[in-house]
Design brief:
This protein is mainly α. It is built from eight helices and two strands. A two-stranded parallel sheet has the order 1-2. It is globular and about 50 Å long.
Length: about 200
């Protein structure tokens, strides 16, 4: 145990200012998103731009692509939450069948991506990298459209991401995703309160 703590302290000392800034902005994003504050999206924009660079440095190719996607989604989410129809956008819910079908398809895509990229990149952690990326792309769309269950997806995604980033030496980012896991649970509860006030809508979209 002591050896693990010593390794953690050593790695923390080696973290860059850029990673620290990205972590702080990412925390601001998830806190504001949980409060349904549209200023979460500018925080996401800057944080993900930094992470695009950091993940390239540690050879997580799918995460580089994922964060480039996040940059686009930050702009899209900002427009969704602050556009002309934003005042009527309420928290909604998907049916269980929709989630089951989505999860099966996402797993298949993750496997195909891993097989396709295995001949190009180091296969260590490649499946985790691909799976986190595929599920995150999907879940970010759910956030932009205020589907409450997005936070249940994030709980799993963030827990797995915390392990992956620690294994890659991004300790601050790993700790960030541990916090994200708890924030996701908090956000799920917060959005549930909003849904009760506005009579949660089940949707097929």
């Amino acid at each position: 145990m002591q050896e693990v703590l010593n390794q953690l302290l050593i790695q923390l000392k080696e973290q860059s200012f850029l990673e620290l800034l990205a972590v702080l902005l990412a925390l601001a994003y998830v806190w504001l998103a949980a409060r349904q504050n549209s200023w979460c999206w500018p925080c996401a924009l800057i944080s993900t731009a930094i992470y695009s660079y950091l993940f390239w440095e540690v050879t997580l190719p799918f995460h580089v692509a994922l964060n480039a996607y996040y940059i686009i989604m930050a702009i899209y989410g900002w427009r969704q939450w602050r556009g002309p129809a934003s005042g009527t956008k309420q928290v909604k819910s998907w049916r269980v069948k929709q989630h089951v079908v989505s999860i099966v398809l996402l797993i298949i895509v993750s496997i195909l991506l891993t097989k396709g990229a295995g001949s190009i990149f180091d296969e260590e952690y490649l499946y985790l990298d691909a799976s986190i990326t595929v599920f995150s792309v999907f879940t970010t769309v759910l956030v932009a459209h205020k589907v409450r269950e997005n936070w249940l997806y994030w709980i799993v995604i963030d827990a797995v991401s915390a392990y992956l980033f620690f294994a890659k030496g991004l300790v601050l980012t790993s700790l960030l995703f541990v916090l994200y896991t708890f924030f996701a649970f908090y956000a799920y509860v917060q959005w549930g309160k909003d849904s009760k006030n506005n009579k949660l809508t089940l949707t097929e979209n």
